[in-house]
UniProtKB/TrEMBL annotation:
One Pfam family recorded for the sequence: Ribonuclease_T2
Name this polypeptide is given: Ribonuclease T2
Native source organism of the sequence: Azotobacter vinelandii (strain DJ / ATCC BAA-1303)
One GO molecular-function entry: ribonuclease T2 activity
InterPro entries in the cross-refs: RNase_T2-like, RNase_T2-like_sf, RNase_T2_His_AS_1, RNase_T2_His_AS_2, RNase_T2_prok
Annotated signal peptide: 1-19
Record's keyword terms, sorted: Signal
PANTHER family: RIBONUCLEASE T2
Length: 331
């Protein structure tokens, strides 16, 4: 095939692979995320970011895996921007009617039906980096655990639980909100999970949010068992060679390639299952892509499974710099 014809074919295939469709609804940002004019090229004129807690009008959704939303951001020269769907909550997202007929499996009903997960994501927070930098310009001072860390009342030097998220490939990151049932955790469970989800020291708002948005979409566990399993999985990572290395370097910079080498020694498929998320070069989260039948503890092998579970592209917000700072708790 002539080179120019081949390039044209590749261009057309790229357009098809990344097609979008009209959509409507409201997106509520849960964190500060890059708002791209083109998420393929990662272009962001004006360095625009979402504001946590702010509502935005949804205009489009990408058709490849429903992981990107195009929202309207008034006040910018280019107000239509692409943001990752897991940056916040899209609620009952409504694709255009013609798209629903073509893709009935994408309907809100399927994406809010419990027990259909085909994988999980374990979101693990490095709390000092999260409080100090990830939400520093928004709502972090309103989170009681962050205020307690800033005052010195609370010192956190271990990884903590953000959430355990059942996923369904056909729904992208919009699989969630399968029930409105509130958590009713036993005192024994609360005692077990508080050091690993410190918001529970002060309230249950964040845990309740995680349960209703994510936990209710699996049917294997009640709320007690779900949070215990999630925390035990966090402890598995925290106590692994990777977790020990990071905790031994609090207040210092670590090399990204060193983290990958440690994971590779632990399990050959581990680097493909782990994503390190940063604000600038400061670690605030690790996301572990899990098989649907993952096993927590005593080693990372049970979390990773026989084959890499992370078969998609880069996770939004992944650390891009070679040196990563491990922030220290408190001022």
């Amino acid at each position: 095939m002539h080179r120019s014809a081949l390039l044209l074919l590749l261009y057309l295939l790229t357009d098809i692979a990344w097609a979008s469709q009209p959509a409507s609804g409201t997106f509520v940002a849960g964190q500060s995320c890059e708002a791209y004019q083109s998420f393929r090229k990662k272009t962001n004129p004006g360095a625009v970011k979402t504001e946590p807690g702010r509502e935005y009008r949804i205009r489009e959704i990408d058709e490849r895996d429903y992981q990107w939303l195009r929202i309207e951001m008034p006040g910018n020269a280019e107000p239509l921007r692409w943001v990752p769907a897991d940056c916040g909550d899209a609620g009952a997202l409504e694709p255009a009617s013609s798209a629903r007929r073509e893709r009935p499996q994408q309907s809100a009903g399927v994406c809010q039906t419990p027990g259909l997960q085909d994988s999980y994501v374990l979101a693990i927070t490095w709390q000092p980096g999260f409080c100090e930098h990830k939400l520093a310009k928004s709502k972090s001072k309103q989170k009681p655990e962050c205020r307690a860390m800033e005052s010195g009342e609370l010192n956190i030097a271990n990884f903590t639980l953000h959430g355990l998220w059942p996923n369904k490939k056909e729904c992208g990151k919009n699989y969630g909100n399968c029930s409105r049932t509130d958590i009713q955790l036993s005192e024994e469970t609360l005692s077990y999970i508080k050091p690993w989800m410190p918001n529970f020291y002060f309230e249950n708002d964040f845990g309740n949010y995680e349960w209703k948005k994510h936990g209710t979409c699996q049917t294997d566990m009640d709320d007690d068992a779900y949070f215990r399993k999630a925390v035990t999985a966090v402890r598995t990572v925290n106590d692994s060679e990777l977790g020990q290395y990071i905790r031994a370097n609090i207040g210092k910079n670590v090399e990204r390639r060193t983290l990958q080498e440690i994971l590779r020694r632990t399990h050959p498929d581990a680097p493909d299952s782990f994503a390190f998320l940063c604000t600038d070069n400061r670690l605030h989260e690790i996301q572990v892509h899990l098989p649907v039948d993952f096993r927590e503890g005593p080693t990372l092998a049970g979390l990773i499974g026989p084959r890499p579970s992370r078969t998609h592209g880069p996770t939004p917000g992944e650390c891009s710099q070679e040196r990563i700072l491990i922030e220290r708790s408190g001022r």
